[in-house]
Amino acid sequence: MTTTRPDPAGESFADLLGGRRAAIDATLGPLAFGIGFAAAGQSLEWGVGAAIAVSTAVGGWRLLRGDKFGAVLLGLLGVVVAALIALYTGRPEDFFFIRVATNAASALCWAISIALRWPLLGVVVGGVLGQRGSWRRDPALLRAYSRASWIWVLQYVVRLAVWLPLYWSGQVEALSITTAALTWPLVAACLAVSWYVMRRSLPAGHPGLRHPALADEPANV
Hints:
70% of the residues lie in helices and 0% in strands. The protein has nine helices and no strands. Helix 2 runs antiparallel to helix 8 and helix 5 (97-115) packs antiparallel against helix 7 (139-168).
């Protein structure tokens, strides 16, 4: 009988984290900003107005569907703060400053978490599964989460490689388009690839994400 690799808990990271839907919503405000900015003859005010209007409409729709108010408010607040920064500096490209900065910080934090043997993918998924830090006592899970977390680091690095030159050169329309292209499609790809890496990293017969095979001490990664 051939031993196959496990299907950890029969779920994917997309099922557990729900990242695709949130990422799709996150593209609409910046895309509306770019469209409003270009359609009104490169008007910062029209771009800001379009972004806030679209984000408010999306937030209202999410509330009607039963989404948590805090999550909806956080998404809208991100767009409002980005708009205020751009209005304050008078530079339309500064609407994207927060995204550039948070992606740089995220890449650094994820890399550091792997080095400290607290890979953030394990922290997030373990939190969703209510495991606290018990997954770290499973050497196989710790190793798999660490390897899969590098895919998330790469996701942020790819965005920065595209966005930084555009931001420095003030290419607002290009920033708007690439924000849409590198948000939900890249998140979907990241979820799929990191899940694949996770599954390939776990040994045959491992009980899966929901059932850490506890050991006294985590193994070296």
